[in-house]
Specification:
Strand content: 15-25%
Distance between the termini: 13 Å
Shape: elongated
CATH architecture: Up-down Bundle
Order of helices and strands: HEHHEEHHEHHHEEEEEHEHH
Number of domains: 1
CATH topology: Outer membrane efflux proteins (OEP)
Number of helices: 11
Helix content: 55-70%
Radius of gyration: 45 Å
CATH superfamily: Outer membrane efflux proteins (OEP)
CATH class: Mainly Alpha
Largest sheet: 4 strands, antiparallel
Length: about 500
Amino acid sequence: MLRRYSDSPVAFIALFLVAAGLTLPQASSAQKTWSLQQCLDHAFEHNIQIKLGQLGEVSAEIGTQSAIGAFLPNFNGNLSHGYNFGRTIDPFTNQFVESSAIRSNSFGLSTGMVLFNGFQNHLNLQRAKLAQKSALSSREIAENNIVLTIAGAYLNVLFQEEFVRVADLNRAATARQVERMQSLVNAGAAAAFDLYDVEAQLASDEATIVSTQNALNLAKLNLVQLLQLPASEADGFKVVRPSDDDLERNNLPPSPESAVGHALASFPEIVQAQYQVEDAGIGLNLARSGRYPRIFASYNIGTGYSGASRTVDGSPTTEEIVLGSLVVDDSTAYDLVAQQEVYQFITTPFSDQVNRNYNQSVFFSMSIPIFNNFGVKSSVEQAEVNVLRAQYQLEQVRQTLTANIESAWADARAASQNTVAQESALVASERAFKNTEQRYEAGAATAIDYADARTRLDNARVNALRSKYDLAFKSRILDFYMGKPLTFR
């Protein structure tokens, strides 16, 4: 069963080559042969852009969690420990005290929550959930881009391998001509310059093999680097080739309308643009919420300790104090005394103060916006502009996607017609070359004639091969646009 990376034509090429690769035998264990499926799995596991997209989803999930938390009350604890020096006010008795150092402690818990803020919490939660969906679409778009890059590099390796194969066939054919001409020269039936001509052609074929092999090596190196493998693995890197049957395609849809309809309803670019329109609408509602009042509730509970707090220690003692003296008869003085209770004070114990200083408070507050320097008005107007911008961007994405599908349909039709023409040209070139080869061997054609016919045959082979791949890819891109199963059976 094929893996569907996303509803995007970008991923189609990858899936096409994967399906083709499944029809071929596996390589020996000593030399791994990479299918496109294996290339994509490896890239999806190691590519940095994919990992960044996954982090975007994680970040959006965290944002949703934060938006949910905004509905809950906060809860905080506080405590303090300090010393006051000199003349100061006792924080619990509000009396002046003097001391070299007075210790104080406070402990408390507080909680508060928004009761109403113009539905901002609800709107932020909607926006956070929308951001999660948008992050998923962003990752799918990133994956499609990676698939396109890997598939393009993979396809380039396949093409270069075909070019090498054609070059090998040409060299082998020319080598046979060199052997035949050498025999004729040795027998005196041909001039030496005729041998020189075919030897020159053989040398040219050898140079073509070197050139095509270098191009193949560079294509492999590019794919290996995209897979983030060591460059040393490029030399032995092998890919799975699709069979000729997998490339066959004869029927095309009569029009692009069905493909356009499916793509506009499901492709991640469209989905993300729609999310952006929704997000802009939420942003507009958030801006309008600035016109509503805010209601907030809070509750506090606390206690504390002060080193200046005093408590009577035990029972008081009685003492006499002299208030003054009384003179009687101008000669006798009597002291006036009174009884006074004397108290002994100690610092109030910590536990007693904590219990005694226990306090609670409940507050409700409301903020009513009256005038804020046109801040809310400007925010609303800017949000309205953002809504229009998002709508225009969605329409632009739709137009671009529609144009791409229509172009793909036209390209597929052109590729189909071109394939028929190139196959006919290849048949004609093969027939012409065979005739020229026979004439050359019979001495009725020159080496230049032979080389010209071979060049036309080479071009016909390359063009037929290119058109065959081109038709297979472009026609199945249309299948993908229309939501058909990605199969080649």
